[in-house]
Amino acid sequence: MNIRNERISILGLGAMGRALASALLEAGREVTVWNRTPGKAGELVARGAREASSVEEAIGTGGLTVACLLDDVSVRETLAPAMRKLAGGTLVNLTSGSVRQARELAGWLEGHGVRFLAGGIMAVPPTVGTEGAFILYSGARDLFDRVAPVLGPIGRPHWVGEDPGFAALYDMAALSGMYGMGAGADHAVALVHAEGGDVETFKREVLRPWMEQMLPITVDGADVSESVPDEYNPAMQATGLQSILSASGEAGVPADLAGHLRASLWRMRRAVAAG
Ligand code: FVH
Fold first, then answer.
1. How much is the pLDDT for 175?
2. Partners of 65 in beta bridges
3. What confidence score (pLDDT) does residue 178 get?
4. Which residue, of 91, 93, 115, 121, has the fewest CB within 10 Å?
């Protein structure tokens, strides 16, 4: 069989599971779907997917099993009764979780004779299968090489190492960056809204170009040490953040994020003062 035509079973038809199934069907893959609560497969079945009435039935269609469920607990609960069926097969877990959970899941599955690849989805449901989407994978390289062309249609496959915890590690770290950026953008918009500014004009003409200008500098400059670059004046930065706090207070907008950033800058100032 052409590897690209390997059958794929998807466990979980939440927003993400449905987007994955849709992208795979679009690419002509043979897809079987299962969801704990029935009734979510209608549109996918109309487009050619097969709906399984149990996890065992979904796994039993052969090929690759992909889990995209709420969390690690739901993955364990879903797979546990079906482990005998899964033995000798391959599971790709695209459910978000922690590094330890991924490593323990790998051990549990491998103990039952299941080959395992951990994943992290760098996309949201509407961007699955689009040019920018990519999927982090970690686990055995030979397994990644087999799986990558099969699951390629959901997003560019990117292997991050043999350690099954690494996909989760990079996933969580990247999400942390995204949430920080998102919280900053939300706070910016809340400020403009509270003081009577035109939010849409502000987003288009100020926030977006400003964040686009700063994004590469922010990512390249991210640092785990408390060292301070020569051109960076922590006293000025801390004073600037105090101005954001003041502006937030005047507008009646909570400023927890700016407060945390100011605390971090004061740590830097102390580090500089201590030599
Ligand atoms: N949606 C997103 O933007 C993000 C993007 C990055 C990756 N995440 C992760 O993807 C996993 C699934 O997310 P989702 O968006 O599909 O989530 P929901 O729409 O809430 O669907 C949850 C599915 O999980 C099933 N489920 C929940 N608990 C159990 C359980 N104990 N046993 C079996 N299945 C369970 C649920 O089934 P049901 O409620 O319909 O019966 C849904 O199929 C997730 O890890 C994100 O962090 C998405």
1. 94
2. 9, 91
3. 92
4. 115
Q: What is the pLDDT of residues 146-191, one digit of tens each?
A: 999 999 999 999 999 999 999 999 999 999 899 889 989 999 999 9
Residue range 201-222, pLDDT digits in tens: 999 999 999 999 999 988 988 7
For residue 74 and ligand 1, the question of a CB distance below 6 A is answered with yes
The predicted model gives 37-53 an average pLDDT of 97
Query: Position 87: which residue type?
Result: A
- Give the list of residues 6+ apart from residue 97 with CB closer than 8 angstroms, or none: 71, 72, 75, 105, 168
Mutate to test the pocket of ligand 1, among 54, 70, 154 (most ligand atoms within 8 A of CB): 70
* Ligand 1: centre distance to CA 16 (Å): 7
